[in-house]
Amino acid sequence: MASIQEMAARCCNWGRWGENDVLGTLNFIDEAKRVDAAALVRTGEVFSLAQAFDSEGPQNGWRRRTNPVHTMTDTGTDAEYGSQGFPHGFGGADDVISMPLQCSTQWDGLGHIFDRGRAWNGRRAGEVVTSAGDSVTGIETAASRIVGRGVLLDLGRALADGLGLERAELPDGFAITPENLEAAIERQGASAEVGRGDILVVRTGQYTRARREGWGHYAGGPAPGLSFACAPWLHEREVAAVATDTWGFEVRPNEFNGAFQPLHQVAIPNMGLFVGEMWNPDSWAEHSADDGRWDAMLCAQPLPITGAVGSPLNPLAIK
Fold first, then answer.
1. By its UniProt entry, which Pfam families does this protein fall under (predicted)?
2. Rounded to an integer, what distance in angstroms lies between the CA atom of residue 277 and that of residue 50?
3. Are residues 46 and 85 in the same domain?
4. Which residues on adjacent β-strands are paired with residue 274?
């Protein structure tokens, strides 16, 4: 569709950091940015931004994504009965987990989405990701990179009064515009300013609603999220990464017919933007609403899974 191609051209970062770049917008987070982020730590309070990884998670099988299957291979019962084969009464427990890498709180890597057969930095998609995995921009390339200033924009709270909402939760299908983002920044104050190298976390309130009312169609169904029109806003502010509390980051249903996740199609392969989904910013949001500080040091490292196009994680906001 022409509008996607035009937006991709407008926001394209191909070649910006050289033809061999594998980090995209994570290049905006340099050592100085991390030093500045560390200075935000004042009380030492830590907020986990992860949803649970268990069989009660949000996945419903769509796109072959399932919830984690956790299995014990050694248990306390085995130890009691002495069936583990260890000497002198030694016993232990072991377990394994089987799950899609994007079944709960996760990053989309740069090899996750393609645009007209092209991956990040203009590479041919088939040369980047094969049956052996992503040999160029595998998620392991970001394993030590995503530490910096995190900024939480609580759109649920910021827009609730103006929209006449009973709760600080945007309705499904609500498209968050650049004007909405600016309104949230103005309402939250100076600590919510978003700029170069920041990791933006957007709370819509959908996760809050899903935990209260049940998952329903949380995975893949209608959702509040960023509008397609936000691409230039993210590009011009040089945001390093963006994450939301929804399954798909952008508004669903998508804003125009004949497209599937068009903001993904622009943001990941063309901008080189790291996208996080299914985060849980609620405890951070509640604390920030009380103390008025909406930024924090954010540590959000993916697991160094060689060749993976996404990764689970436990993001930590440290205030």
1. Cyclase
2. 10
3. no
4. 241
Place of tokens 């924090």: 296
Residue-wise pLDDT for 245-257, tens only, equals: 999 999 999 999 8
289's CB contacts (< 8 A; 6+ apart) are 154, 157
**197 neighbors 149 (Cβ within 8 angstroms):** yes
Q: Report whether pLDDT(80) > 60.
A: yes
Looking at the fold, whether 237 and 116 belong to one and the same domain comes out as yes
Query: Mind listing the pLDDT tens digit for each residue in 288-317?
Result: 999 999 999 999 999 999 999 999 999 999
Which amino acid, 55?
S
Q: How many CA atoms lie within 13 A of 313 on its CB side?
A: 30
Q: Which residues, 6+ apart, have CB-to-CB distance to 212 below 8 Å?
A: none
Same domain membership, residue 177 and residue 88:
no
Task: Give the residue numbers spanning the domain of 85.
Answer: 69-98
298-317 per-residue burial string, b: 16 or more CB within 10 A, e: under 16:
bbbbbbebebbbbbbbebbb
> In the numeric block, which tokens belong to residue 110?
């740069």
Task: Count other C-beta atoms under 10 Å from residue 251's C-beta.
Answer: 25
List, in order, residues 6 or more apart from 255 with CB less than 8 Å away: 175, 227, 228, 262
Q: How confident is the model at residue 63 (pLDDT cuts 50, 70, 90)?
A: confident
255-269 confidence digits (pLDDT tens): 998 899 999 999 999
Give one word for 3, left, alpha or beta, with left for phi > 0 and alpha for psi -120 to 50.
alpha
Mean pLDDT of the chain: 97
**Residue 54: is its pLDDT beyond 90?**
yes
Helix extents (H) in the chain: 2-10, 31-38, 76-80, 125-128, 155-163, 178-188, 206-213, 231-236, 262-266, 282-291
Report pTM. 0.96
Q: Looking at the DSSP assignment, which residues form a beta bridge with residue 316?
A: 48, 299
Q: What is the pLDDT of residue 2?
A: 66
In this predicted structure, the answer to whether residue 158 has a pLDDT above a threshold of 70 is yes
